[in-house]
Design brief:
InterPro entries: LOR, LOR_sf, Tubby-like_C. The chain is α+β, with helices and mostly antiparallel strands. The protein is built from 3 helices and 12 strands; from the N terminus they run αβββββββββββαβα. It has a single domain, classed as LURP1-related (Porin), CATH 2.40.160.200.
């Protein structure tokens, strides 16, 4: 299973154009003092790589990752009535099963720290996950592993700046390892954020 996953990685899970033969550092800026939380993803030179679209009404069950030109790359949708907080990612703006790229679910229902299992669309049995996400969104720290192995494909960590505090922005960095799809990693981070939003709202109620 892991060999199969790693061969897919070389070609790009979402698209080969989002793979590089070297490690890619991305900065993610999340505006947290607006009616609609917004994400902008830039490279180390400050050039926009991705944006996220989501209206106030649909924010918690539907988000679209856009490239720098505004073209839809991935649509992320929460699967309703699922026990493990199940999320699905589709090509472009589609939500049809034929365009499914991957599915994400919690490893277990009750967790102190987030653990997510990721299954590619062709892994229909879901006996073994293709990727695993471990970490804490509140600490802005997480690691993405290939399958059940200790092979790391991406890491996220908090970036503290004076500007981020003053302007109500939440900045963090993501390092995507060589030959790995950074659009896929950004999609996983969006799902992590959604799960965090749900947890925060539950704590307030």
């Amino acid at each position: 299973m892991q060999k199969k996953s790693l061969s897919v990685n070389q070609n790009g899970i979402i698209s080969p154009q989002y793979c590089a033969p070297y490690a890619v550092d991305l900065a993610i800026v999340r505006k947290v003092m607006t009616l609609v939380d917004s994400f902008t993803v830039t490279n180390v030179n400050g050039k926009t790589v991705f944006n996220v679209k989501g209206s106030l009404m649909s924010l918690h069950d539907h988000r679209v990752l856009l490239d720098a030109t505004g073209k839809p790359v991935v649509t992320i949708r929460r699967k309703m009535m699922s026990v493990h907080d199940r999320w699905q990612a589709f090509k472009g703006e589609s939500t049809e099963l034929k365009d499914l790229i991957f599915t994400v679910k919690r490893s277990s229902i009750f967790q102190l720290k987030t653990k997510l299992d990721v299954f590619l669309a062709n892994n229909t049995k879901e006996d073994v996950c293709d990727f695993k996400v471990k970490g804490s969104w509140f600490e802005r720290s997480c690691v993405v592993y290939a399958g059940e192995s200790l092979t790391i494909v991406a890491q996220m960590h908090k970036k503290h700046t004076v500007q981020s505090i003053a302007f109500g922005k939440d900045n963090f960095m993501v390092t995507v390892y060589p030959n790995f799809d950074h659009a896929f990693i950004v999609s996983l981070i969006l799902i992590l954020d959604e799960i965090n939003q749900d947890a925060r709202e539950a704590a307030q109620n």
